[in-house]
Amino acid sequence: MISTKLGGRRIAVTGATGFLGTALVERLLRGVPDCELVLLVRPGRRSNPTQRARREIFRNDAFDRLLADRGKDAFWEEIDRRVTVIAGDISQDGLGLDDDGRAAMADCDIVIHSAATVSFDAPIDGAVEVNLLGPTRIAETLLELGVKPHFIAVSTCYVAGNRRGGAPEQLLSDSPFHIDVNWRDEVTAARRARADFDAESRQADQLAEFRQRARHELGAAGTPLLAAKTEQVRRRWVSEKLIEAGRARAASLGWPDAYAYTKALGERALDESRGDLPVSIVRPSIIESAWAEPRPGWIKGFRMAEPIIISYARGLLKEFPGVPEGVIDVIPVDLVVAAIINVAAQGPADDGSVPVTQVASGTRNPLRYRRLVELVSSWFGEHPLYDRKGQPIAVPEWSFPGRGAVERQLDRVQKNLERADKALKLLPLRGRQAMITAEVEERKEQVERAVGYVKIYGAYAECEALYGVENLLAIHEALEQDDQEAFCCDPGVIDWTHYVRNVHLPSVVEHARVKTSGERSDPDARTARLRSRVLAPERHLAAFDLENTIIASNVVFSYAWLATRNLPPQDRVRFTIKTLSEAPGLLALDQRDRTDFLRHFYRRYNGASVAEMDRLGPELLADHILMKAFPAAVRRVREHRRLGHRTVLITGALDIVVNPLRPLFDDVICAEMSQRHGRYTGELRSVPPTGEVRAQALRDFADAKSLDLAESVAYADSSSDLPLLDAVGFPVAVNPETRLASMATKRGWLIEHWEKAGGKTDRLLPLGPLPMARRSMK
Amino acid sequence: MITPRPGFVLEVDRQTPPILFHHGEGFRLEKLPVARSRVIYPGEPLRGLDDPDAAIRQALLDPIDDDPLPSLLWPDMKLTIAFDDISLPLPPMRRPDVRQRIIESVLDMAAEAGVDDVHLIAALCLHRRMTEAELRHAVGDRVYEAFAPHGLLYNHDAEDPDGMVILGHTDKAEAVQMNRRAAESDLVVYVNINLVSMDGGWKSTATGLSGYEGVKAHHNVHTMRHSRSFMDQDNSELHRSNWRQGEIIKSDGPRVFQVESTVNTNVFGQNGPMSVLQKREWEWSISDRATFTAMQAGLNRMTASARRKVFHSWNAPYDMTSIQAGEVEAVHRKTTEMVYAQHLVPVTGQTDVLTMGLPYLTPYNVNSIMNPILVMVQGLGYFFNLYRGKPVVREGGVLIMSHPTPWEFHPVHHPSYIDFFEQVLADTTDPVEIEQRYEKQYAEDEWYRHLYRTSYAYHGVHPFYMWYWGSHAMQYLGQVIVVGGDQRAVRRLGFKPASTLMDALEMAEDTVGSKPTITHLHNPPILMADVS
Fold it and tell me: How many structural domains comprise chain B?
């Protein structure tokens, strides 16, 4: 009996937070009542390993069955009693263990290593550290501790590489197709690649390029945000280069991707460094949702086939490469778990060799690619997903083209979308029109993802290797009758039709949280929900930008109005022509740097009379500001005030222009101009509150008034206001321009479309009214 | 000169040409169903006074039930001249405005008497402030330039914390509030233009120089529902309340010397391009028809704001038909007689369906935008109430009005209207509920108060008064249909939209039964139905 063979043993498990690891832990706790577990868990960014284990392992629905069986208190009592969580990290030499950790490891009878970077497109250096060096590090640590537990390393069938025909259960070095590369050289090369690309990314022209890209994405968002974005772009670039390098290196040696390549070399490294440690290797193929345990369809995370299936059901993936008569080697997770436990129960080989067990379905119970596609497509024909308008989505029919054709088609779509996106971002769009960029961006991302799937997974659909499972079947055969049921690892039991239609697809669809009914979701409901959060009484502060948020105007317009107020008609024409001719230059300067633009522009006020400007204030309000105001914005300010929120106008506009609006707000933070002898100098008293200065001004203001910005709201219209919006807990995009529109959509911010009161036509440049002509006396 | 013909009720027969319906800044010609429709036409403009200035002087020197104005003036006195604001007359009249003529005469007499302390106040209550151009138009450039630069000619400010006084309370506990300068004057000369029978009398001072505290006594749903109609002062709770306040002004307020004037219905001129609009359709000449067609074609090619500009630049060639001065009530009796003489048209029996074509103008959108709330008040407030005896339409009947009703607002003049429309009406259209739940909040709002005082905004509470103005009709009518209006805006008002008059008449039959009787109110020029 398995339960007696493993009863009372201490079993260490790495990778317990993963899909396979969680299933393994659950089954050991439930199926082997007396064993104890030591879980090696990497500390999270904000949580210690024990908390992380609780959250990511034991609260997973895999444990629902055990929880129901034991009851809540007994369940947690049992976890505490049987499970020891130790902090550790596979990617560090010595596993990053402390003394307690080492002691716990030294005490184990069995070590199951299931930690891996399963992402097929991980940067090469990361994959090398975890997948290649991980098993070796564990072996070395155990040897160092002077203990010899049975070490079971979980690998993958795909270490056999891209080839047709049989791939038996044997060590790679025994295979005739073995290519002899030194794994140590590979490690050195991967580490050097990281250093090389990092150095390259710091070249001046590269950095300029990154800056350019960041600016394209954010617009004039201010130096700190642009710098952060630039660094993010740089890191992404390095990471992409490393992914590319991994894929290229793997392909050059005949593996489908960096995952299989590092796993394969990992096996080799382990074989070399294991000393006299008893080792077994278990190689599953593509692990998918559970056949029966802990319940049919159980799955954790959004894995390999799932995004492809969902993209297909959404009609997004119109083609996927693959050989129709080829075998898709899928294996339910519970069969893999059972195989590992059986290998553990069986114990290591007596002769000191390394037994390999492959857990795959392809030879024993093959699922052909065409059959799988048929099953998926007929199921979605009966259970379609629905689009946002509530219409069922018809699934495309795949014609099994080659990978090249699919990639080319997607490439075309992607290029078109990129062009559209670029063009749209150059247009001065606002509000509802700008929302189209958000849609294009969303579509672009979907296509990018589809391209990614094809690139990464295409090789698997085209792989025609057949994995032998003689050892696996022998293990199964050797089991006692009860164990054959409880720990079944024979792929022959799977009824593919039932599995795909009734087990896997329902689980995937449920997991993906997609629309599975035609009920129309109310598009206004989300906005209403966001709005009610913005207008919740417990908010502290509401900060408003001025231009295009409260009024459809800008500093140039206000200046034009003030400057022409006392001009006779002929001079007004000259003024209009002059100002309009300067417009392109001003616009360019504004897009480069808002602060420079304001400083430059405000020079024009040099010599203006302070008294005259004060006198014109109320008239400016009536004739210019209110005419251009969004009534809904004014209403919103007052709504916040009524709710007891502190309202603050925070703008780079001049105090002269802003003063008439003071009664609307509790506080005003704006640009102020210095005066001499009753005249304005055209010079600002301090840096105007724009970009990051504005965010800082808001922070200072909130600090001074003891208000919490996390509980505050900010309204603004452009990506140059990002620092302001980012500073608060509840950002609102008002009539956003294109960049902000797509950002706000992505981040799920409230977007308001406010319009001017209807009934007035816009003038090219708003001029002050003519001075009242004196009429002749009667 | 031919004697003007009185008002007239036309029974529509097969020979009747299509009838003119005003439709905002445009017109519609509509065929009315034969044998069950009638059209009420206003009387033709009465003859104006030959020498208005002489008549004014005569009225001031020989007032009714009061001493001659010169005898009420002395050198050290405080004299305040208050005058009607931009809401009168409609449309604004050609220069010189009646107010200018009267004020110049009064100022001449004050100068002769050596009065130094003179203030001129636009008695606008909670209306928007008048602009410099509008003040110049009303009082003339000479008066404007002599007084305005010294701060002696200005708009009334009902929200000036130091500028208002409570004179006392009526026996019905109604507060009587007044502009402090006027209240502390030795004499208030009130200069009125009595366009319709609602205007004038104690309403001039008790309302015009008052504020929210004072007018809320009668600007409420209860009063308006008990004013049947508010154009008929003998049956109007609105007037009874104002007259009660007048008693307090008489006993505790300043001495009031009331100068009232009336104008005729010469809105569009006896000749000229617009004159066709005040002719009866079957009397249109070939050139009238050509003018009308050309006007329609021209208007169709204009943008909405260009059309608005054209219409709002029209000044009526009104003639002054009477002037009387002296004691408020006696003067107003005479004035009312003169107004009735011009406006009353005898009408026999009520109708099932009342139709009206609403023009581009109400008292509250001079040089501004006629927003949907003003469309309501034009139809259900003013036009519906232009009756004496009983309403032209029977109780439970249908009102069909024609107006484009765009969802447009003047952001400077009507800020609280925008919010009233977006917030209050989105919630309910019931006047009682609106009054109870929302009035106070809008009336005491600091931002509206700021805009009313420093900009050119109607007071925050003003849209509520508009809604109350329609409350009698809302309660009385079975259905209201708007022809050719913005559907969303019409529905927001609680009315039904229809694209044509024929559709509207079909819809009306659901309420009043088939083959209903129809009466069209051919207004403007203004008429008042004397229904028996």
Answer: 2
